[in-house]
Automatic annotation (TrEMBL):
This is prolyl oligopeptidase. PANTHER family: PROLYL ENDOPEPTIDASE (PTHR42881). Residues 479-691 form the Peptidase S9 prolyl oligopeptidase catalytic domain. Coiled coil: none annotated. The keyword Protease applies. The lineage of its organism: Bacteria, Bacillati, Actinomycetota, Actinomycetes, Streptosporangiales. InterPro entries: AB_hydrolase_fold (IPR029058), Pept_S9A_N (IPR023302), Peptidase_S9_cat (IPR001375), Peptidase_S9A (IPR002470), Prolyl_oligopep/macrocyclase (IPR051167). SUPFAM superfamilies: alpha/beta-Hydrolases (SSF53474), Peptidase/esterase 'gauge' domain (SSF50993). Signal peptide: none annotated. Residues 7-219, 281-414 form the Peptidase S9A N-terminal domain. It catalyses: Hydrolysis of Pro-|-Xaa >> Ala-|-Xaa in oligopeptides. It is an enzyme of class 3 (hydrolase). Pfam families: Peptidase_S9, Peptidase_S9_N. Keywords: Hydrolase, Protease, Serine protease.
Amino acid sequence: MSDITEPPIARVDVVRETLHGITLEDPYRWMETEGEEFHHWLDGQARHAREHLDALPHRAGLLTRIRELGSALTQYFGLAMTADKVFALVREPDARVPVLTVTEADGASRLLFDPATVPGDGHHAIDWYVPSPDGRHVACAVSDSGSENSSIHVIDADSGALLDTIPPTTRFAFLSWLEDSRSFVYHRYAEQHRLDSRSFLHQLGADPAQDTVVLARGLNPHIELTPRDRPFLVVPPHGEWMLAIISHGALSPWPWTSEQLSDCTIYVAPRAGLADPATCPWRKVAGVVDGVTTFATSHDTLYLVSYRDAPRSRVLAVPLAAPDLSRARVVVPAGERAVESVRVVGDRLLVRDLDGGVSRVRHVPLSGGEPADLPMPVDGAILEWTTHPTRPEALLLVAGWTDAPRLYRYDGQSLQDTELAPRSPVDFGDVHVRTLHVPARDGTPIPLTVIHHKDLELDGDNPAMLTGYGSHGFIDLPEFRPEMLAWYERGGVYAVAHLRGGGAYGREWHEAGRGERKEATITDFIDCAEHLIALGYTRPGRLAAEGASSGGIPTGGALVRRPDLWAAMAMHVPTVNATRNEFSESGPINVPEFGSVTTEEGLRDLLIIDAYLRVRDGVPYPAVLLTTGLRDARVPPWQPAKLAARLQAGTASGRPVLLRVEEHGWHGAGSTRDQEQALLADVLAFILHASDGS
């Protein structure tokens, strides 16, 4: 690999600032302007990384095998039911991106919308979609190159004809059709920034520029909004009521629009209030302190999952006409399981639980009674579920670490396999999955899922990759990835640490790794790594870590605290310069989760997770692969770029520090199959080379 060009050296221009008596030194602050100098440097880094990765001895073979495995299974997800139709996003083995399909009552399926037909540079992908109540129309959000900055295309579900287009300023699937199936409410940002976003009412055929504002700061005296808040309007498919969900912080992406909420305020009002949004009689139901994470409605009742006075959450019910939370009825009391979500199905309430990282389901009559368990087909994850708006029916997509997704139908009594999702031809029969409970340094048991070939010898000489996230209450659900068989076939170990700060045990697990307690997220990750070594799965010279987005916190934290522990580190679009995060486009919405430099407490919290500021000169850091997408608005390219520059300048190990740049890429969503497979081949080849030197 001696012919590979050297990476360009970044100019050092130290910015010193003192905040709350603490002096910070930032040598690459200039990168944040993303000017011509930065992009020239970034181009050089991209060329260097590409040359290095393409020259890795295992890369070509891994890519061939990954493509073979990834092209064997048709993927179904993004399910929705309405009228006599079932909609789904489908990715065929040879397709770059998923397409939208519809299955009619007679069982016949057809292609409804292919995002490849949208004109423009790069590729386009479907971010989310919502069918109308009568099944005649579909509002489909499409973005270019995975940007998640969606335009809304309204499609005729019978002919596939394009009826309407709303320009790109929308995010999040908080779109609700009204009863006429000719109008809907939706959320969008201002064209130039993410402050003072608003929700609108759109009529099919009308000019989107003339859409009526229905929720906005200063519009209605009953609803308080700050510039950072996002006001979402939800109109359920039945009843006479509607909800306003005011998000004060970061939200999880589609399809869980009514799930995994955090830092939200909820209001209720009659639907008739849409006639005059300025005087609509909104009534507050719950605030941030009430800890509502999920909601569902019947005709006259609002069901809320709340962690207030219940660390693993419980289910409450209040009348929509008089939503007094202090007098709420407890439908499902708190227990050992963490309540994730609820859905109304006919005369029953479906309750989705998390039991140490494994999904469980209970159902309970709306009229009251004891929740009863539904037998699950596998010990895995409910990847998604959807209910029919008028029939007592639900669809659940269920998968495990070694079990391909299967689609089950709930009829009010039990789960039955629909046989709609194809069975995987990739054989995982020789792959073993085990869940360990690692004693953290404070004694807390941390769940750790370990996956490998069943004949693996625990001789301490296996290449291993440890991953974790540990923020936003995110749950590391079992995920079937047939391409990972290429890793297991080579004797690789894959381990998932269910860190504090995530959601493995509900809100209490999230709070245990949040704010001033964020150090636990990082030390949990380190403790899991040391446990793998102690049990003989691997050793420091063969152990690698991987993390994406906020997963850059445990990986970056472990990199700078214990560089001796790792052969390699792979960090995808990572948050690594937390003290500067709130000054980026999407940074302000993450303040409730991570903190703000405007307060001493917030600054100290951010310094815990700022890996960039902890890099020191002369330290022998492991091999590091950082990735970024040029169009990433969630974690801008300067975040991983600054860490790459600092590590390249400071490391004493002589090991490579690469910055892999995806020209037509954002934060990961909407990537093509080729992009996903190429990235995985790069990561596995990089780790193998770092761990065995071949």
